[in-house]
Amino acid sequence: MTLAAEREAGTEVVYPDPTPPVLGGFQGLPARPGWFSQHLGTAVIGAVLGYLLGHWLGNVVGSGYTNIANTGENSIAVTGGLLLGVLGWLMGIGALNYPLAKMVGMEPRPDYESTSWTRYLRYTADHKVVGLQYVIGVLTFFFTGGLLAMAIRTELLSPTSHVFGPGTYIAIVSEHGTIMMMMATSVIVGPLGNWLVPLMIGARRTAFPRVEAFSFWVFSAGYFVILSALFYGGFPTGWTGYAPLQTQAGVGMMSYLVGFAVIGLGMMTAGFNLAVTIINYRAPGMTWSRIPIFVWSILATCALLTLATPTLVAAGLFGILDHTAQTAFYVTEHGGSSFLWQNLFWFFGHPEVYIMALPGFGIVAEILPVFTRKPLFAYKVAAAGMVGVALLSFFVWQHHLFQSGINPDMRPLFMLTTELISIPTGFIFLVGMGTLYKAKIRFEVPMLFCLAVFFNFLIGGVTGVFLSDVPVNVTVHGSFFVLAHFHYTIMGGLIFAFFAGLYFWLPKMTGKTLNKRLGKIHFWCMFVFFNMTFFPMFLIGLLGQPRRVFEYAQNLQALNDFASVSAFLLGASFLIFIANFVWSIFIKPTEASTNPWNSLGLEWQTPTPVPFYNFERIPVVLSDPYHYSEDDAPPVADLGEGGLVTAGASSPASVAEDPRPPAQ
Amino acid sequence: MTVDTEQTTGQEGAEPTQKEPHHIWRMVAIWAVLAVVLDLLFYFLVGPHVPPGDMTSAASENQFDFTVLFLIALPVILAVWVYLAYSLIMWRATRKGVPDPVGGAQARTHLGVQVGWIATTTVIVIGLFVFGTVELITNAGAGGGEGPNPIWTPTSASVLPVQVIAQQWKFTYRYPTYGGFESQQLVLPNDTTIAFHVTSLDVIHDFWAYQLSIKADANPQLDNVAYTTTKQTGSVTVRCDELCGLWHGAMFNYGNVVSKTAFNAWAKATQVATAANTKLLPPFSWTYVPDANGADGGYYPDNVDPYSNNEVYGATPAKA
């Protein structure tokens, strides 16, 4: 039943905030745009035109410098092209309609309710559409980076003979690292954060729907910017972009610097929007001790996104200026300092690592109670742990610089803070183990991924303590040990949690059930081959192989080949996921029930597909959603007339199938 | 110190019900046996082979450090794994007779367990911090680069300074106490405390002498000092450990730790043999200012005027 129909029926309901989000648009455009309006196609046209214009302008500006004239190495032209390309992309999709319309005194146009599939190709204020756009976006990022990883492992099959030239190899390594890091900053906040947070807190939308859509479209622009590096010959610095090498590098470096600035803009806007949403848009009764733990994790992540990312954008801007305007922020012999980049980069970079860990914890803690039929153990400790990690993460960055030659007196302090952060991080294990105690565990696909997170992240976390110890760091710093460590935390933790979240929530997001058998095959392949790929790398690193090399000691070939073959199989395991995704959602869809996992979460109490406005009535929240297996459990929420969500003794019947009030 | 966390977790959590097995004690028993056996196996079988060996003081101390950390980490990992394995087997929904879980307040929070967990992890972490700091300070920086102003210095009276010059994409070594001659190969005397002065001529590199357990970034215009004392003779692998561009993967060479007399003989002979070459080099300095002209073929900076329009190589203008 639509809002309008309900209004006509004369139902007396108070609708808080009934104004639809305003998207903006120029007068004269059709209210319900067709193919002549703005969509992905116009965005591409805008990007191409913007790039050409910027490149031309850059050549005009830069032609006076002898060092770049006639070299094809004009950083100004490339920077101008990329920046105006991004601007053209944003204008083409319609991201700037609202401010532009306001600027010329036009009336913005409200968002319309659309059920056409074309809404996924448009700039939309519906957080559910943005969430699914993000799903496709991060998966594209992830699989691109994954293919590059396959190329790296191909080169490392042999210690000496080369598949790629050294320039190509270093470009592939750098591109892989950067793409994966960019993807990982948004992999959960983007798709699941945007899609779930308003539903979980009982809101109809996020606080700034236009900003939310902006964050996605600027994120997707970042994909093309960083990919463009390959066409400029790549950049040689790895994802860390260390400075003298950065200054020395060719125009491919501009893709990295502009790309991170663009992605950084997306991270800040996404984080800002969700933080404000969580603080201000909670439904009545949704107190801080009742919000789902996933929302806590997103809130902590948003704090990091908004506070740490500006450092990266500023650092990138300095780099861009060094390349284009001949400044010397990072040029030691001109009075700058390469340590400035290292410190700025890691001041962002280490909080970023927790941007990549906290949402994973949130997903795991959110899913465990559903499949154990037990309440979440130590909810407050979990929330405090996430906030604690977020706070401490700003005070650990110099552990990346233990051997860098900065003054050593702060080294014990950073060893202490780094080891201290393992305490709040460890809370997720307390929460998980407490929840598993005397539970009734259902091994559904999302649960398997969650349990794998505990297995993998434990190894990743404990090896992190090794790295934080300065004497041991002398041996393992910069080696494959580090590489294995952060793949265990980011891939073993975050990516496994992301897939747990996808298998768990996709039935709600798409209304289709994913094939369980294929899901289990995917899980076991991914889990086994992940460990077979990355566990040997701890040994490879301890035995003396540095990161990012194409030649290594002869005696390490067996271990490297083992890791390579496992990596190919790990890569292949994602084909199972893609097949499952395409088959279950597009080719032979099976309708999912509204609450297939029998969860008490508010997001599951909506009909499937979730209506445009999420909730016909803003729910009144009565308790937290973890009252599983409790005899006299309080109802979770009042969804309207008679629509109480109650827990009961682990029986699905007591959960309202359709929480909406019956039509009169 | 490595108190198993389940012991605390479960003791209070397990309200004794009728004929309910003592899950926690079972887990503790499995854990204790596994932890002791595996720790002992690691200590005796793997311990002596833990990288980076015991060729220098830094290496053997770092080896000891790694072993201690591993002996602590293993029981912690086992604690979680045993707990996970036990609960997944014992409380899986498909097992016959698995009781329905009990929700409610007692399943949601437990002060003792939470405080116990936090206290245990805090004790471990603080212990590790104290241990690591003591190891770092008492071992003269444990072989890591301490920058231009080292604060943890070796007690030895005589220290041999060796300069490591990194550039794209090779390492060279200068011996200031032997007239500042330059060598392509790292040769070190045994039973000697050595101060590595690591610097770079272009981008950031990292001097990683694996068997010596030395790791120090090579920064342009910065003297990064790292100490160790050699204990055995043998060969040393040197790799660049910081991405430095195109041929980073091929930036490695080898060195040797030889006896003191052999080193003296080699150093004196090389000093004489390379005297002509040394004259052409810039005068020995802890850092070198990269030549603005270096990019187009300057092998070495002139250390006089980095921005001179005339490409001048060597300390003094070459005689006609």
Q: Could you explain how this protein is built, in words?
A:
The complex is a heterodimer of chains A (664) and B (320). Chain A is mostly helical and 664 residues long. Chain A folds into 4 domains: 24-109 and 116-123, no CATH class; 125-347, Cytochrome C Oxidase, Chain A (Up-down Bundle); 357-572, Cytochrome c oxidase-like, subunit I domain (Cytochrome C Oxidase, Chain A); 593-664, no CATH class. Chain A is 60% helix and 1% strand. Chain B has 2 domains: 5-94 and 110-143, no CATH class; 159-289, Sandwich (Immunoglobulin-like), CATH 2.60.40. Chain B has helices at residues 5-13, 23-46, 57-90, 105-108, 111-138, 260-273, 275-280, and strands at residues 159-167, 170-175, 181-183, 186-189, 193-200, 205-209, 214-218, 224-229, 234-240, 252-258. The longest helix of chain B is centred in the first third of the chain and has 34 residues, at 57-90. In chain B, the strands form 2 sheets. Chain B has a 5-stranded mixed sheet with strand order 3-2-1-5-8. With 320 residues, chain B is α+β, with helices and mostly antiparallel strands. At the A-B interface, helix 6, helix 9, helix 14, helix 15 and helix 16 of A face helix 1, helix 3, helix 5, strand 7 and strand 9 of B.
